Amino acid sequence: MFTLMAWLSRRRLGTLHAWGTLLGWLAYALSGTYRRRLRSHVALAGLGAEVRRQAVAETGRMVAELPWLWLRPVDRPLGAAVQWQGAELIEAALDDGRGLVLLTPHLGCFEVCAQAIAERFGQRARLTAMYRPAHQRWLRTLEETARARPGLATAPAALAGVRQMIRALRKGEAVGLLPDQVPPEGMGVWAPFFGQPAYTMTLAARLVQQTGAALLLIWAERLPAGRGYVLRVSRPVQPLPVARADSPDEEGLALACATAINQEMERLIAQCPGQYLWGYHRYKQPRRVHAATGEEAPS
Question: Whole-model pTM?
């Protein structure tokens, strides 16, 4: 499998995206579970058939571009494949020295965000990205190879990873998370997402609250015909809710913050709904894991 991935990594991005379109429709045709989930989630968001068709193709392109992204040599930068909008917001946040929390949903090419940030800002402030290791050994090895890049560190989705991110923020560095990823049991709250309760991480807000870090949003739009990506950086529309001195309701605050972050993710997704990963099992029950290691706990 690694040999195939290495061969694919040497193809042109436009070629991979063309193959990915076919792959997306093949997966949609062969998997009834995936097909029903994607259709249901698109409908839940009040969107129609055109977005659904776009999402099928874009999901295939997302998978097909991974070899190009993961196995690209370290000495071959993204360069002109990435255009920036709002990079000055990251510059200003890093200049402030309080640390920076970057949030991106499963929208567009979210894998390119970490690499692009590390290439542009890694020499002045390392980016630590949280990840959940794959179950398959070969894929886990591939992920580790892909993410071993200058200016980029990874943190497991466990208590050890949380501590690692807090240390990074207190040093004035940046951290990145996917806040629409279903967290392990005990690390989230049920908050509305497109009108339906979804188990939502509380970590993003806690990192900001505990360290005083800045908060920005980022996502990478995939351009047609393999022309690359546009990274769009923005501030949240509304600040995170804060605790009231006369009513320290921690559970209520966690829910309010998770709801606010979900609303921000919905706003980003509305900019390009056809590139959201609607087939992701967003409304599932959380997994039970060992808090310290992130490994699945026995049922």
Answer: 0.92
